[in-house]
Amino acid sequence: MTTIDPLALSCPVPIPEGARVTLGHGSGGQLSGALMRDVLAPCLAQASPGGPLNDAAVLDLGGTQVAFTTDSFVVSPVVFPGGDIAELAVNGTINDLAMMGAQPAGLSLAFVIEEGLTLEDLGALTASAARAAAKAGTSIVTGDTKVVGRGAADQLFVNTAGVGVVPAGVQLGADRARPGDVILLSGPIGLHGVAIMSVREGLEFEAEIASDTQPLNRLVAAMLAVEPGIKVLRDPTRGGLASALNEIAETSRVGMVLDDAAVPIPDAVRGACEMLGLDPYHVANEGKLVAVVPADSADRVLDAMRALPEGEGAVRIGAVVADHPGMVTAKTLVGSERIVDMLVGEQLPRIC
Amino acid sequence: MTTIDPLALSCPVPIPEGARVTLGHGSGGQLSGALMRDVLAPCLAQASPGGPLNDAAVLDLGGTQVAFTTDSFVVSPVVFPGGDIAELAVNGTINDLAMMGAQPAGLSLAFVIEEGLTLEDLGALTASAARAAAKAGTSIVTGDTKVVGRGAADQLFVNTAGVGVVPAGVQLGADRARPGDVILLSGPIGLHGVAIMSVREGLEFEAEIASDTQPLNRLVAAMLAVEPGIKVLRDPTRGGLASALNEIAETSRVGMVLDDAAVPIPDAVRGACEMLGLDPYHVANEGKLVAVVPADSADRVLDAMRALPEGEGAVRIGAVVADHPGMVTAKTLVGSERIVDMLVGEQLPRIC
Asked: Where is the PurM-like N-terminal domain (chains A, B) (predicted)?
């Protein structure tokens, strides 16, 4: 690892000498947030229309509100119980658009391939991406392929970006939660993270755990149809439910109080987390969303969610409060109260 | 390198057993074309609005024609004479939008970082991306950061995607060249490729060769202002001038005849190519464009190009003909005629 020629480029932000990127910076937790806040955002030196804490930017293009998002995927292994890197990438980008209220209008697909991948595997993953896009009612409209030598990348990295139109009247944002709002969750948490851990760490469970990767755009459309005034949508991916809620609480300067008993955690997820010493609220999900909705429409939104397979396990998990702004707490199963903190450092590298 | 579980995924296209991705598949030449034609396009199994041979897709979003494109960058080294991977990525995406006639409205920036990169280097490259965007009148509006372990990636890979509005009345496409049209080139070729080779192969030249990476959106706006009916624009990146023109000739089912004497090749590029046994027409450029324009407006377009620094070396290099459809030929310096073929295999891996 050589250092970049300091004559050619310089970093405009004071950074401790010798500080290096660690796996924890990719975790979606506190270190990821610090990297964005202390290095990336100041180096970009500009107001970002979408803001670093929304899942997508929204641009006005000729009077049309267009959501635009990107994600790179480095999950290992590239095929895992319940999905693969290409399907995960397509669903992830569709979901980032959906969290801004947009239906996908087209996706890009860019591969960085390690020399030696079989064409059959590349073809199979490409077809998986196309199927995932079609399942969500969209398609891959542009792409790119790069190849690097053996050892310069690990099999395959995938980037997907996407665009979609935000319907008139919909205005979602991590800064819009207000005391009195209700927090909804679309179903059981922790399945993607535990599925990846099970293959990576060789864990065996009584029932097979499969990733929950799935597109959420239809669920979001159904929710907005009954309540266009939903405040915040967020898919709790890297960093899990805890990071997603903490980011919303911090951006909106509100507190949140969860009810641990209400949060659905599959037995296998709970068991794996106990074995590995993890908090299920920190485990990544790839097909779930949390919503902050006005209290008076919460039941209608819940009913709309439960009417679709991707929302059949939807529940109310807590409320937004004026107390302790920027902090998320939970009523525990034994009746006490605890702080729900963001993940610190790295739980499992390359989970998405 | 393990093979993907065949039970989980299958490739819908017949592929020779054991065929693997090689560095040549990333060259932008014939092998890249074959990969797209024989594997990626059939596996995507759908009509692509932009088509695999345009630089960007054009989508109708609420009545606005939006160009949308993506590229991943794996150039090594990440800082090179005349530029760096982040600036290259930003310019590359701006140029892909420009080749569809669009001004950039917003870019995404996604990093795959090898654990251990210094935060100072990461900050410097991020700032370089922001500067490049600002120089072209746009900004980074959304992004993503992933970290992989040491040895799982080589320092840093960058993906940029972008969106931009295609002005009403502009309709550019690789299928629109017609016999009688004139072929223009915005300036000297080969500088990016030779700059990368010079650092990678340790070549010394009398004068330092710097990459030509630069944004072309203002040049394109000036060209379209004098002739909205320009037929094709293409930036001859990987695979060089030869690949760009061959793709246009093939897609439009026309022939092309170039005049070798008219194509500006800097002495250092010619010298490096002679030393390394390369055809300068195959060497990558990152700040040049070729244009296919109606004959009667060619002089006006040339004048508009020459009025800007990024087009000051613009020249007429040939014409579109009805003969030998799909083939590009050149009148050589000694008066004979030769076939200008696409690059076969790999010239230099990781040039962009």
From this structure: 54-166
Q: What are the φ/ψ torsions at residue A210 (nearest 5 degrees)?
A: -115, 145
**Position B50 pLDDT exceeds 60:** no
Number of other residues whose CB lies within 10 A of the CB of residue A202: 7
Q: With contact defined as beta carbons under 8 Å apart, do A170 and A155 qualify?
A: no
Q: Which of B46, B62, B160 is nearest to B104 (CA)?
A: B160
User: What is this model's ipTM?
Assistant: 0.94
Q: Tell me whether strands A232-234 and A290-293 are parallel, antiparallel or unpaired.
A: antiparallel
Helix (DSSP H) and strand (DSSP E) numbers for chain B: 9, 14
3-state secondary structure B176-187: CCCCCCEEEECC
Q: Report H helices in chain A.
A: 30-35, 41-44, 85-98, 119-135, 191-200, 217-226, 240-252, 267-276, 298-306
- Using a CB-CB distance cutoff of 8 angstroms, which residues of chain A are in contact with residue B109? 70
Q: Is A168 on the interface with B (CB under 8 A)?
A: no
Exposed/middle/buried for residue A20 (C-beta within 10 Å: 0-12, 13-18, 19+): middle
Taking only the tens place, the pLDDT of each residue in A32-43 is 989 988 999 889
Q: What is the pLDDT of residues A285-329, one digit of tens each?
A: 999 999 999 999 999 999 999 999 999 999 999 999 999 999 999
Amino acid code (one letter) for A4: I
d(CA A287, CA A236): 9
Residues paired with residue B104 on neighbouring β-strands, in sequence order: B164
Measuring CA to CA, how many Å separate B245 from each of A113, A145, A235? 26, 20, 44
Half-sphere exposure of A49 (CA within 13 A, CB side): 19
Nearest residue in B to A129, CA atom:
B44
pLDDT band at B9 (very low <50, low <70, confident <90, very high): confident
Q: What is the mean pLDDT of residues A226-246?
A: 97
Mean pLDDT of B311-319: 98
Q: Which domains does chain B have, with CATH numbers?
A: 56-165 (3.30.1330.10), 182-339 (3.90.650.10)
Q: Mean pLDDT across the stretch A60-76?
A: 96
B309-336 mean pLDDT: 97
| Cβ-nearest to A146 among B40, B69, B72 | B72
Give me Rg for the CA atoms of chain B. 20
pLDDT in tens, B93-142: 999 999 999 999 999 999 999 999 999 999 999 999 999 999 999 999 99
Burial (CB count <10 Å: 0-12, 13-18, 19+), residue B334 = exposed
Shortest distance, CA A64 to any CA of chain B (angstroms): 6
Check: CB of residue B103 under 8 Å from CB of residue B139: no
| Residue range A93-108: mean pLDDT, rounded | 97
SS (H, E, C) B290-352: EEEECHHHHHHHHHHHHCCHHHCCCEEEEEEECCCCCCEEEECCCCCEEECCCCCCCCCCCCC
* Per-residue buried b or exposed e for B267-299, using 16+ beta carbons within 10 Å of the residue's own CB: ebbebbbeeeebebbbbbbbbbbbbbbeeebbe
Question: CB-CB: which of A8, A49, A128 is closest to B79?
Answer: A8
Question: Residue A15: pLDDT above 60?
Answer: yes
**Torsions phi, psi for A10 (to 5 deg):** -140, 150
